[in-house]
Design a protein that fits this description.
The complex is a heterodimer of chains A (about 190) and B (about 325). Chain A has about 190 residues and is an alpha+beta fold. Chain A has helices spanning about 40-50, 100-110, 120-165; strands at about 10-15, 25-30, 55, 60, 70-75, 80-85, 90-95, 170-175, 180-189. In chain A, a hairpin with a 4-residue loop joins strand 5 (about 70-75) and strand 6 (about 80-85). In chain B, strand 1 and strand 2 (about 80-85) form a beta hairpin. In chain B, helix 2 crosses helix 6 and helix 8 (about 155-165) runs parallel beside helix 10 (about 185-210). Chain B is built from 13 helices and five strands. Chain B is about 55% helix and about 5% strand. Chain B has helices at about 5-20, 45-65, 90, 100-110, 110-115, 125-135, 145-150, 155-165, 175-180, 185-210, 240-260, 270-280, 285-310, and strands spanning about 70-75, 80-85, 220-225, 235, 315. Classes of the chains: A alpha+beta (about 190), B mainly alpha (about 325).
């Protein structure tokens, strides 16, 4: 008795620029407390971010990421923009039995000078969107963690600098209780 | 050829196999003849005496192995003392009775393939229950409400609190904390230590969830227990933090209320509040509770951020 097999073929599809989603984007806000002057606070924060491997770009401080991914913090607005580029091409699986129909659809589109309308392509675009959202979440979590660490270090330095301006710093101690982090600076006048 | 078989002898052989670890279908030489065995049995006096000689050492050894050198708190002439299984005072304080019901339940289990009926385990004394749990390696056979209703002593409850298998949404012995007045002094300190181990397990699981490292639900985590007690706590990992967070929050409230009672109006001796506080401080439970708050905050922050991404991501 013969068996029938269902074969799926991977077909590479170039998504036309007009149809393509170029990027997925998400914005996050951070707060920078003014323990010292705004300019001084930004300067310390920039230092701390550079120490963590961030790069200074015209748009702001960029977190090191893979190609096609961006997380840039604008120090003036304290807004971080996270972006993920969408692919220009994608592979879709076409079942062997439907390959002929797929080829006919492609030939028709070429003849008419139109973009090929295909449900599989639309489904694949949706998959790419969801993938982009997951990557955005991962980058957002990582960026939030990195920036919050940098902010903590910034505040530590700013508090010491502020205390030094008030008198002689005798002692600095740090403690953590639950989710509260405390820095205690003892100053003699 | 005629064979003369005595169900009592086969039961002893069956029990021996169970205690050696063959808990599923022990290989008994003449098990093919179980069809001829009666569904109910009256044991001989000789067998009953032999049975007592089998059970008692097994249970005593099991108690020693379970608690090792753990120092339980006892009241003695109004003051608090610490005794472990190495002290005669420990053994003098406990009285465990055994009956032939454990033999009957194991007999029922032995021929259950033929009768198609499982043993009625609840027809036992608490001492029998311990032996049956040891033999079948199942400490979830008996519930804590059953143990309390049948007036199980504190060491039996401690054994069950030690060996119960836990799910993430229920701690079988948390009901004891709901009635702190009924908890005997030796069990109080022990439950605090056990609670610390449980929270350590919970925090481990939640940290994994927070770091997105839980991929398979079936991973089992064993956490080494407190010093002086050799039994690790086993808990399945989960991908869903909500249940475990909810049940842990409930558990923590009950524990804090119980400890508050034990160190105030529920004192048993003149100074046991000091010892209970000492156990609370040395068990690590305070650190675990702090850790729990931190990791729960981490998880909710992550969930909030992910929800924001879902709601406000822009595609262009």
């Amino acid at each position: 008795m013969s068996r029938s097999y269902s074969v799926s073929l991977s077909v590479g599809v170039t998504i036309p620029e007009g149809e393509r989603l170029k990027e997925g984007r998400f914005d996050m806000d951070f707060t920078l407390l003014e323990i010292l002057s705004p300019d001084r606070m930004k300067s310390i924060l920039k230092e701390k971010l550079l120490e963590k491997g961030f790069e200074e770009t015209p748009e702001g401080m960029a977190m090191p990421l893979n190609d096609g991914q961006q997380a840039v913090l604008d120090l003036d607005s304290m807004e971080m923009q996270v972006k993920v580029n969408m692919p220009e091409k994608c592979n879709i699986l076409v079942e062997g039995l439907l390959l002929e129909e797929f080829q006919e659809s492609l030939a028709r589109a070429r003849q008419e000078g139109n973009v090929m309308q295909n449900q599989r392509v639309a489904q694949q675009m949706e998959i790419e969107k969801n993938r982009a959202v997951n990557v955005l979440k991962q980058i957002a979590l990582k960026a939030k963690k990195e920036v919050n660490l940098a902010l903590k270090e910034t505040y530590r330095e700013a508090i010491k600098e502020k205390a030094a301006s008030m008198g002689n710093v005798e002692n600095v101690s740090e403690s953590k209780e639950g989710n509260t982090y405390r820095i205690r600076v003892e100053v003699s006048a | 050829m005629k064979i003369q078989l005595y169900p009592e002898d086969l039961l002893l052989e069956y029990t021996e196999k169970l205690l050696e670890g063959e808990t599923t279908n022990p290989d008994i030489k003449y098990s093919g003849y179980f069809d001829a065995f009666p569904p109910e049995i009256d044991f001989s006096e000789e067998f009953c005496e032999k049975w007592q000689q089998v059970i008692e050492p097994v249970v005593k050894k099991f108690i020693c192995d379970s608690f090792a050198f753990y120092p339980f708190l006892f009241e003695s002439d109004g003051y608090t003392r610490k005794y472990s299984v190495t002290d005669v005072e420990f053994w003098e304080s406990i009285d465990i009775s055994f009956s032939q019901r454990s033999a009957l339940r194991l007999y029922e289990r032995m021929i259950s393939d033929k009768t198609k009926q499982l043993p009625d385990y609840i027809l036992s004394l608490p001492g029998d229950a311990v032996f049956l749990s040891i033999a079948t390696t199942n400490f979830n056979l008996y519930s804590f409400p059953w143990l309390e209703k049948n007036k199980a002593n504190w060491v039996i409850k401690a054994l069950y609190a030690t060996w119960n298998f836990l799910n993430t949404d229920e701690i079988p012995w948390e009901g004891l904390l709901a009635k702190p007045k009924t908890v005997e002094l030796p069990l109080r300190g022990y439950l605090i230590d056990r609670a610390a181990v449980y929270m350590r397990c919970v925090n481990y699981i939640l940290e994994r969830i927070a770091e997105k490292q839980v991929t398979q639900r079936s991973e089992l985590k064993k956490i080494s227990a407190m010093p002086g007690c050799g039994v690790p706590l086993k808990l399945y990992l989960t991908r869903n933090p909500d249940k475990i967070i909810k049940s842990s929050n409930k558990f923590i409230k009950m524990l804090e209320k119980a400890v508050s009672y034990w160190t105030a109006e529920g004192m048993c001796a003149l100074d046991d509040d000091r010892f209970i506080n000492g156990v609370f401080n040395s068990s690590g439970i305070k650190e675990e509770l702090k850790g729990f708050d931190e990791v729960v905050t981490k998880i909710s922050d992550t969930n909030r951020l992910e929800e924001r991404v879902d709601e406000s991501v822009v595609f262009s």
